[in-house]
Amino acid sequence: xxxxxxxxxxxxxxxxxxxxxxxxxxxxxxxxxxxxxxxxxxxxxxxxxxxxxxxxxxxxxxxxxxxxxxxxxxxxxxxxxxxxxxxxxxxxxxxxxxxxxxxxxxxxxxxxxxxxxxxxxxxxxxxxxxxxxxxxxxxxxxxxxxxxxxxxxxxxxxxxxxxxxxxxxxxxxxxxxxx
Length: 179
Prior knowledge:
Elements: H1 2-29, H2 34-68, E1 81-87, H3 91-100, H4 102-106, E2 112-114, E3 119-123, E4 133-142, E5 146-155, H5 166-178
Antiparallel strand pairs: 1-5, 2-3, 3-4, 4-5
Helix pairs in contact: 1-2
């Protein structure tokens, strides 16, 4: 929980400083214009508001973690997540779960199998905290009816700096469905 708080605090400080410093620079170089003073004060308000919104998102994440039973070691607010784990299923059993059960759990249209790269791909639907994610699952069959699963989840929007745990939540749903 401490790591999650620190990640959110760092993000809040970076956004706050960016907006606050840009408003200060605008005011410093063009202070003769009354309109720019108004814009600067609005930007300073936006900086404080952004800081509060990100801290509010921290409380949202804590509630999400507690209700979804997400392992904190796998949870991060940063957009790109890569997690590998082993399941006690053969390749065909795993493929069946990926193609038939996971699309409903992830709210996607279904997985497409990429023969060239040997992985499953899908895109999730947009939600209140995300524009959707691209998810790739690579399944490697091991001996004794086990499979190595590698899941990579990233936002559809490449400019996303933080996704507040949406990729981590997708990975948790995949883990729960496969176990």
